[in-house]
Amino acid sequence: MMGRRKLLAAFALGLAFVTASGCGKEQTSKVINVAVTPASPPNLFEENGQTKGLDYDLFDGYCKARGCTMNITAYDWQGMLGAVVSKKADVAFSGISITEPRKQVMDFSKPYMDNSWNLVSMKSRNLKLANLDTLKNYSIGFARGTAYTDFIKTKLEPKGIYKVDQVKLYPTNNEALADLQNGQVDLVFLDGTVASVYRKKLPIQDSYVFEGIDRLGFAFPKGSKLRDDFDKYLDELGPQKRQAIIDKWMK
Amino acid sequence: MTFVEILLTLLKGAGYTLLITFSCAATALVVGLGIAMARELGGAWLSALLSAVVYVLRGVPMLVLLFIVFFGLPGIGLDVPPLPAMMLSLGLISGAYLSEVFRGAFAEVSPNEVLAAQSMGFTRFETLRVIKLPQMIRFAVPGIVNELTTVLKFSPFAYTVGLPEITKQAMALVATTMRGIEIYAAIGLLYFGIYRLLLAAVQLIEKRYSIPGFAQE
Q1: In the list A52, A92, B64, B109, which could disulfide-bond A84, CB 3.0-4.6 Å?
Q2: Do both A239 and A226 map to the same domain?
Q3: Which of B1, B69, B168 is most worth mutating to test chain A (most A CB atoms within 10 A of its CB)?
Q4: Are residues A208 and A125 in the same domain?
């Protein structure tokens, strides 16, 4: 009986030690849990198993300045946003647009870059839209869980330009673009950043470009202290240095 | 990048796909067997309760349950890591389906044999263990294989909770290379390979425990 009790005590002590040291570690070496979607070049992608991109460089700069390390987990787009909301991740970045619905469940850093929204089509179709009057005659596709749904619902639908019901949704940009090449969808919504990458690899062109409506930010859980410090870092970095990083990936 | 190089890159995720498939399949088998056996042994109340559980689990979409477990439970202070979250969603749903497969297979066991066992003084548990279970499992093999392949094909949901399995590798690769057709063809081949592996394993077990003349009357 004594033996068993001693064993139990030792076990409890061990458990306490493990949990205590676990907590201590987290605070001293500052491991930051990062959620990404490596299907968003040039903001974030993988090359030979290596996570790279514009957003990565920015946050890597922050970590070098503050002496923290990144623990990166790759999710799909919805999973990445879910990870921030549920506090599984301390920060998420992969070219995430700052939107009102998202702001209600997560905190965003200051916008770090402006982004245009491009409706692209196959070059062979020679489809150029001078204005939005004829937009409803074409099918539009894009990746599920992106900010375009909200944009169409709040900005285009009330003006009778386009209905959310007309939209075709895909798991990621890749499937939307595959369907575009197969002629199953007329136009695909892409971020200007993403479009710049795909234009080099696919025979696509911009049919219409929405400017000045979209800004990208780093996403943090509600009430994040890390967010405040990261905003401070963006100020320290200054617009010139930040633009240099953006130019490095956009050109 | 050649087709072989694509295959090798995707193979990095194959370990996770196998791990997810096997751990969820194991959960499903345990849960399915547990429910089916409890239904055989338990009374009307337990049976009704388990029927309700199976009813709900078979009706809930996989992704919805996964989101509840992985992103929802932390809200009430229960932090579930990715793999257990898969086991608690895919494993449970699949277990509910398997319990129905087992229920059907139990019904195939000859009632005369059960009657004979009872007249020999077997308890209900003994009848289940010695007479019903060994025959039921053999009847259930085709249904089990069906369900296990479903588990394999649902494994890409693990990417939503951050497990880098084959489909994640493919999507990351397509994003930078834009060679969708080749890459998706390659993961098709990989999934087919894993399916063959699973099938071979089940056939091996089936052969090992086969009884000459059984189920051919």
Answers
A1: A92
A2: yes
A3: B168
A4: yes
Query: Which of B131, B179, B64, B173 has its CA nearest to residue A47?
Result: B173
User: Which residue of chain A has the CA closest to B162?
Assistant: A75
Give how many domains chain A has, as a whole number. 2
A36 shares its domain with A83? yes
User: Contact at 8 Å (CB) between B131 and B113?
Assistant: yes
Instruction: Give A-chain residues touching B68 at CB under 8 angstroms.
Output: none
User: pLDDT for B41-65, tens place per residue?
Assistant: 988 999 999 999 999 999 999 999 9
Number of A/B CB contacts below 8 angstroms equals 72
> Rounded mean pLDDT of chain A?
87
- If DSSP codes are grouped into helix, strand and coil, which group holds residue B122? coil
Q: Which two tokens stand for residue A75?
A: 């999710």
Choose which CATH entry (3.40.50.970, 1.10.3720.10, 1.25.40.10, 2.60.40.290) describes domain B3-208: 1.10.3720.10
User: How big, in percent rounded to 5, are the helix, strand and coil portions of chain A?
Assistant: 45, 25, 25
- Asked if A79 has any chain B CB less than 8 Å from its own CB, the reply is yes
- The ipTM estimated for the assembled molecules is 0.81
Q: Which residues of A123-149 are buried (b: 16+ CB within 10 A; e: fewer)?
A: eeeebebeeeeebeebebbbbbbbbbb
